[in-house]
Amino acid sequence: MGRKASAALKVRGVFQRKEDPGVWWIRYHAHGQMKRERVGLSKQEAIDKYRQRKTEIKAGKQLPRNLKDAKITFQTLIDDVLVYSERHHKDTRNVTSRCAIIGKEFGTWAVEDIRSKHIESWLHERRTPTGAKPSGATFNIYRSLFSLIFRQAIRDGKATENPAKGIRKKPLRNTREKQLSPDEFTRIKEIVQRRWPDRWHEFVISLGTGMRLSEQYNLTWRSVDFTRGVVDLRNTKNGEPREIPMGPEVEAAFTAMKGLCFDTGPDGRVFISLRPGKWFKEALKDANIEDYVWHSNRHTFCSRLAKNNAHMKTIQKLAGHKTITMSARYIKTDDETLRNAVTGLF
């Protein structure tokens, strides 16, 4: 074998360790210290990373910490992503609670020791506090959170690969969204108005606007325009502002809420609480309504729009759906509708 062929097989600074077979590492001198980094399963990626580090050293760039000598724990990555979440996410409560759950299992682990199989096994074996197996949607949410944590760590130079990237998301088959039937609405209306009359306004506003929970309970009076008759949402999930016209029931509910509030100035909160309380669960139980949560009010809103023959683009705009595919779920067709559609074409 000639010198050129031999050089192609062996690259200086790129190596494998006996205790970590199949994984490629790089080593290089920087500022008088030997640094080592675990790259991944691809030799070419290790070569590219080695060349990148050498270029960065020449440019005087700050390099990542030595991943061999300084064991970075997963809890460090969690702490970093919580800071990131505070800056970039609108609903940090769920991110914080989910990070706490992940941290109980992986917090003390060294980042370099976590593999895809460890994360995937935990996702499949995890159970809720009641012992139930989480839904496919919950599986996907936690998988995405793991991926976010590692992506942020790679940007910060605290990890070199994302082990959650190769984990497949679970397909979601829950195409039918829970919504209130007319009979269920009548039952829960009677119960809430009788037992929690002041809470009825919150419920009407939710059903009549389709706002997400975070949009509704973070609302200030600045966003409620009685003159124009609209709710003006600026801080939405998809980042795009939208206006929702107020029907007479919704406008009456906001007027009643204003009479209950201590601070009705522009920055005053419309709702004192940050989410519906125990009253909602008790009302559902008394009304014998199962598999229904506050977010289901949003599905009821969209379904009622569809039954009123609202166009899909109208539903998309009022609900703030990023894609029209989300809105299309609420358009139901039956045989009579299909037959009427083709009648009179000629």
From TrEMBL:
InterPro entries according to UniProt: DNA_brk_join_enz (IPR011010), Integrase-like_cat_sf (IPR013762), Integrase_catalytic (IPR002104), Integrase_recombinase_N (IPR010998), Tyrosine_recombinase_XerCD (IPR050090)
GO biological process: DNA integration; DNA recombination
Recorded GO MF terms: DNA binding
CDD domains recorded: INT_Rci_Hp1_C
UniProt xrefs under PROSITE patterns: TYR_RECOMBINASE
Record bears the keyword DNA-binding: yes
Keywords: DNA recombination, DNA-binding
One Pfam family cited in the UniProt record for this chain: Phage_integrase
All copies of domain Tyr recombinase, residue ranges: 175-343
Similarity comment: family membership: Belongs to the 'phage' integrase family.
Protein name: Site-specific recombinase XerD
Organism placement in taxonomy: Bacteria, Pseudomonadati, Acidobacteriota, Terriglobia, Terriglobales
